[in-house]
Design goal:
seven-stranded mixed beta sheet, 4 helices, about 140 residues, alpha+beta, Aminopeptidase
Length: about 140
């Protein structure tokens, strides 16, 4: 697996992956906007040249907020999500962030186990945060030493 920053040429493939992973996929303009953010982190995981997953995060003041982690349904449970999140944590440290935050659907047990297994702690809950279907979000944080 190779991990690289996503570029404009990756947008169509990232959009297709997004559509396979989420009920409300992003639009081209959304991805293009993320690519232009100075405080953004957009990483892609590839195997055999094919985009298997991506991570989108923002660095704001002294915290990184992971906004999205997408892994192709056919490539799940093979370590792609872990590699992406580990890379984001390394980037957060390089940028001097003190913590990494994220939200996850309350029903997403595999993601919750992954995040908790690498040091994220539950710090709260947001009622009705997600749509299609409506669902609460679990708020997680990992303090960086």
């Amino acid at each position: 697996m190779t991990l690289t920053p996503l570029t404009e040429r990756d947008v169509p493939e990232a959009m297709a992956l997004d559509a396979r992973c989420f009920p409300n996929p992003g639009e081209r303009v959304d991805f293009q906007e993320e690519l232009s953010r100075e405080n953004g982190v957009l990483l892609g995981a590839r195997r055999a040249g094919r985009l298997q997953g991506y991570l989108l995060a923002w660095c704001v003041v002294d915290r990184m907020e992971i906004m999205n982690v997408a892994v192709d349904p056919d490539a799940r449970r093979k370590g792609h999500g872990l590699v992406l999140v580990d890379a984001a944590i390394r980037e957060a440290r390089l940028r001097g962030m003190v913590a990494v935050d994220l939200e996850v659907r309350v029903s997403n047990d595999p993601a919750l186990k992954l995040y908790q297994g690498i040091g994220f702690s539950t710090v709260g809950r947001r009622d009705d945060y997600y749509r299609n279907p409506t669902e609460d979000a679990v708020l997680l944080t990992r303090t960086l030493a």
